[in-house]
Amino acid sequence: MKCNETVQRILENLNTAVLLFDEQRRLQYINPAGEILLENSARHLLGQAMENLWPNSKEFTNTLLQSLEKGHAYTEREVQLHLPQPKSVTVDLTVSPLWDGREKRELLVELLPIDRHLRIARDEDLQDQYQATRTLIRGMAHEIKNPLGGLRGAAQLLEQELGDDELREYTQVIMNEADRLKNLLNRMLGPSTLPQKRAMNIHEVLERVRTLVQAEVSPGIEIVRDYDPSIPDLHADPDQLIQALLNIARNAMQSLDGKGTIVFTSRTQRNFTIGHKLHRLVVRVDITDDGPGIPGNMIKKIFYPMITGRPDGTGLGLPMAQSLVSQHGGLIECASRPGKTTFTVILPLES
Q1: CA-based Rg of the chain, rounded to a whole angstrom?
Q2: Can you give the residue ranges of every domain in the chain?
Q3: For residue 78, what are the contacts with CB-CB under 8 A and spacing of at least 6?
Q4: pLDDT confidence of residue 177
Q5: Which of 14, 120, 171, 279 shows a CA-CA span of 20 to 30 A to 130?
Q6: What are the DSSP calls for 23-71, one per residue?
Q7: Order of strands, edge to edge, in the sheet holding 27-30?
Q8: What is the DSSP letter of 309?
Q9: 16 and 35 Cβ atoms separated by less than 8 Å
Q10: CATH superfamily of 2-113
């Protein structure tokens, strides 16, 4: 009796979801971690057929049934499990067929959610790539700016020596192009000043961005607001956040080609990890459009400088936005499919 109580206590305190199915594929046991994963209570789940627990994951169910029929245990990493909410989770899966003395078959399923670990690894990789790229770009930009200044200075001196106005037009071309390249390099280097932080509400930034974008969009584009008014103030530089969110919103506007919807959403999330740091509370801003989406071969590269899908684009808007948000200890993520592209800005709410 004591042993059974100990085993029960262990199962109830595991982070791994443990589910036991009988021969009829009906759920006989689920621990608290399983209830959390499926977002339902044992009282409602017990007795349900396996396929009813995750009706959108037929391939997942078939894999479990094969294990039950053939009696083979196996482990699989990073399995996508689609739940009814709708919700999708990534889990490490272990399946173990069980037999009792009467040849009764049961199936023990262990599900370990790893979405948080994968996201932390992805965020760390994104930040490492961003820092490496930024260091490279800064070095190249400084190397280019020095001779560029010399070229412009030489053209300026040459113009003073020339008496012919037609020849001076050529020196003006040299100086204008040198200035244009210098401005481009300055944009690649990003902001040169530290954030001037103060207590502010994220909605004053979102409303400013919405007003600016609204003045630029065509009549066929609708901007929708979905704000959480209870979000507390954060400590940030409003001008820099306006610039970052404006770059993202303009990208959304340009992707719609004159017709569609842009949704601004604000929410809070608790216990959110950015890189190695766990934040008790963060604000999440989503800018979503219903445009054609970002091609799969570009989605991992959009925060690199000079990467753009538009013929007239510079590919500097998103890297600059990432730089500005990074200076606030935050991060920008992107998820895209045809008909829905969402850029998510995460900012810590701690001072």
Answers
A1: 28
A2: 2-113, 118-189, 198-348
A3: 90, 91, 92, 114, 118
A4: 82
A5: 279
A6: TTSBEEEE-HHHHHHHTS-HHHHTT-BHHHHSTT-HHHHHHHHHHHHHT
A7: 27-30, 17-21, 105-113, 87-99, 74-83
A8: S
A9: no
A10: PAS domain (3.30.450.20)
A 10 A CB-CB count for 219 gives 7
- Work out whether strand 260-274 and strand 221-226 pair parallel, antiparallel, or are unpaired: parallel
The two structure tokens encoding residue 55: 């009706």
Give the chain's residues under pLDDT 50: 1
CA distance linking residue 279 with residue 282, whole number of Å: 7
**How is residue 299 written in tokens?**
């989605």
Distance CA 331, CA 269 (A): 14
Architecture of domain 198-348: 2-Layer Sandwich (3.30)
Q: How far apart are CA 279 and CA 349, in angstroms?
A: 8
pLDDT in tens, 48-77: 888 888 888 888 888 888 887 777 888 888
